[in-house]
Amino acid sequence: MTRRITNLEQLLDRIDDAVSGSDRVPLSAILQMVGRRSFGPLLLLAGIIAVSPIIGDIPGIPTTVGIFVLLIAGQMLLQREYFWLPQWVLKRTVPKPGLCKALKWLQRPARFIDRILRPRLTVLTHRAGSSAIALVCLVIAVAMPTMEVVPFTANGAGAALTAFGLSLVAHDGFLALLAFVFTGVTIGVTLSALL
């Protein structure tokens, strides 16, 4: 049985364990290491992929992340106990060199972030609060394909998803509040660039 992830460093370690000998790492291998029972680490995983300048700026990755987040957030709203993904999504792969480089790049910020996380304003990470997070993540997911054409907005959406995932993992409602604000700013910048 997979132990519950409680911080960013643990998630990065699990993803690192999923990296195999091939040039591309299937999403199914990463999910097997992360676990399918908790939605926070899954949002965190999507956010890390999107926020990383090494992986997140590859054409098509923001749209793939958007589909992944759409499935996660939808199942959060349905209050499913386990996360399900169709086989065609599980077969998607991430380039191993980029993933390894991103994991190394994230190690130092992860240590800092984990030191400031703590349970607070927990009402924002349970029941109605987690449903609100899921709704906002649905908005982000729908906007992700558009963000591919507006520079840096997909990375901004990734930062918001990372914060939402961390807030659910650590039960840190203050971080969820910051993520709500960051989402509003990112969506606003995207819309203003398109109009």
Q: How would you sum up this structure, described in words?
A:
By secondary structure, this protein is mainly alpha-helical. The chain is built from nine helices and two strands. The longest helix is centred in the last third of the chain and has 22 residues, at 173-194. The radius of gyration is 15 Å and the shape is globular.
Question: What is the structure about, briefly put?
Answer:
The protein has 195 residues and is mostly helical.
Overall outline:
globular
Question: What proportion of the residues is helical, as a percent range?
Answer: 55-70%
Tally of helical runs: 9
Question: What is the distance, rounded to the nearest whole angstrom, between the alpha carbons of the first and last residues?
Answer: 49 Å
Pick out the low-confidence regions: none
Q: Provide the spatial order of strands within the biggest beta sheet.
A: 1-2
Output the structural class: mainly alpha
Instruction: Output the helix-strand order.
Output: HEHHHHEHHHH
Q: How large a portion of the residues is in β-strands, by DSSP E?
A: under 5%
What is the assembly state of the chains in this entry?
Answer: single chain
Question: Rg from C-alpha positions?
Answer: 15 Å
Describe the main β-sheet briefly. 2 strands, antiparallel
* Mean pLDDT across all amino acids: 84
Give the strand tally: 2
